[in-house]
Write a structure and sequence with these properties.
The complex is a heterodimer of chains A (about 200) and B (about 475). Chain A has 8 helices and 8 strands, in the order E-E-H-H-E-H-E-H-E-H-E-E-E-H-H-H. Chain A has about 200 residues and is an alpha/beta fold. In chain A, the strands form 2 sheets. Chain A has a 4-stranded antiparallel β-sheet with strand order 1-6-7-8. The relative contact order of chain A is 0.17. In chain B, about 30% of the residues lie in helices and about 15% in strands. In chain B, the strands form 5 sheets. A 5-stranded parallel β-sheet of chain B has the order 5-4-3-6-7. Chain B has a 5-stranded parallel β-sheet with strand order 17-16-15-18-19. In chain B, strands 11-10-9-12 form a 4-stranded parallel β-sheet. In chain B, helix 6 runs parallel beside helix 8 and helix 13 runs parallel beside helix 16. Bound molecules: iron/sulfur cluster. The site of iron/sulfur cluster has 13 residues of chain B, from helix 12.
Amino acid sequence: MDKFDKLTAVAAPMPLVNIDTDMIIPKQYLKTIQRVGLGKSLFAEMRYDADGNEIEDFVLNQPAYRKAQILVAGDNFGCGSSREHAPWALKDFGIRCVISTSFADIFHNNCFRNGILPISVSHSDLEKLMDDAERGANATISVDLVTQEIHGPDGGVIKFDIDNFNKHCLLEGLDEIGLTLKKENKVTDFEDARKLDQPWLHT
Amino acid sequence: MGNPRTLYDKIWDSHIVAQQEAEAYILYIDRHLVHEVTSPQAFEGLRVSGRKVRRPEATFAVADHNVPTKDLDKGIQDPESKLQIDTLEANTAEFGVPYFSMTDDRRGIVHIIGPEQGLTLPGMTIVCGDSHTSTHGAFGALAHGIGTSEVEHVLVTQTLVQEKAKNMLIRVDGDLPPGVTAKDLALAIIGQIGTAGGTGHVIEYAGEAVRSLSMEGRMTLCNLTIEAGARAGMVAPDQTTFEYVQGRPYAPKAGAYEQAVAYWKTLKTDEGAHFDTEIVIDANALVPYVTWGTSPEDALPITGYVPHPTEFKDEGKQIAVERALHYMGLRAGTKLTDIEVDHVFVGSCTNGRIEDLREVARIIEGKQVKDSVNAIIVPGSGLVKIQAEEEGLDKIFEAAGFEWRQPGCSMCLAMNPDKLAPGDRCASTSNRNFEGRQGQGGRTHLVSPVMAAAAAITGRLTDVRDLT
Ligand code: SF4
């Protein structure tokens, strides 16, 4: 998995609440059997018209935000379908960090597994960051995972929380499966005990 | 004896394998369900790393999202859908995972066949690369959706790394009035707490009204839990649960069954256990619900009106409502029962079970689908289809003007050929009214099966209680 420690980048504002994973990557792109190549289809139905031309108004089509690596979004980002295609598409486009007041559970987990940092902030902090993001390409935002701080373009600092496990995995770029496999003997012990306790589950 | 615990606490505690770090636990997974859309990259990951599936027998696969629901003899026309289903077939063969093929009568939507086959049992941890895995919580299991990286993690290790969620209790007192179903109850809850209302929680549904629901109703309720943002929803197992499970192909057989039931009976919240959040709902006061917008929280009693953006406090929500009204082609102040529909879809893992189909048949028997309406019924599994046909329901549907299809996810997410065209408006028994969900530009109103039947007859959103 890709590491994440520090990022200074343009942030794109998306104040809409409840941006769901169907919006992030519509179902017609779920037929792929690969993880890569979804960036061009990110937000497809908001980003392109029926003929496939870019919709000028859409934030990621505006010159200032075409290279955005941070999204600042309204409440409950990533709700809906569990599709990991959503973080795959964000990452393939270049987004490495999403800031909102809250995230849907499965999407939140999926981000960490793909080297994307989801940050939850308070409503008032989100408002500040949204204003910063609206200033376009000159107002970059810096995110520092080690110190758990977001630095706005004018020097403001916002602290954020993250659980230790995900922080550790992101900073080191650790493979979660590899980590669990180190405890494989505990899984075996659990299964052995289970065969006695609840034999109907282990026939 | 320790502190009183909730049902969720008990299942959580009994599945901890090890602690990985501070709040991160390795949790054992009893049942892993797999479908074609979210698994190819996970199996590919296994191949690349040279790993195996730890317990193929605890895993079960079926294709549902992409499958066509008619003209099956012609095969799958869409080459990408075909590739995805062929890939699942090849992967399950290579890794020894049990699989119901496209020609097997037992195939269907993964969340319908799990319970149907007895793959879903009380007290289990159940995961699937699909958010509506919450459905299985109806059995008193801890069941939730996961992403593809987690699918790979479960395939290899039979575990998942998890943080414990908070406990939420939703107690529903009283009885659901006639014409008001588990679907309406779920929509009412989501309308009240919002699509993020359950975030970070596992919800336990309790109270008289929940106790009196059939397993089908409980599954509908738990299915929609994800639309309230909760990780999982659950109902403590009881006699209704045990009777449903007994005799199912993968359920414990005689001898083991009795032993299992004795254990399952311990799966209930202890007196005095702590819930972080408690909500009480009066079932007697509920009416049929519909959604008017593009989020499941945009739910209102059918007796209501399309709201105005200024009725909402939050600015982000105001933007969303404006956008939703535009997308849905609706004006604020319109009576919900004045909204005309041209499509009706009955099916999905929310409402594609036999009981749902019986309810639809009861409403439409002897009536006609309005000419302007295109109505389809898609059974949730091959066995639901067979049973419905044995009961003669298909004849009732067809006589009324419904199309009777083969099982699959179908127009719930329109990955197969069943989809709305831009501007089409559909009364749907599915679970998501997101923009484009049932086809780009398509407009979805979520309703219960009986409300869908009523809309098919009148050609507009209709209060089923007014239908004579
Ligand atoms: S019926 Fe709909 S919600 Fe259920 S699994 Fe299929 S696509 Fe998902």
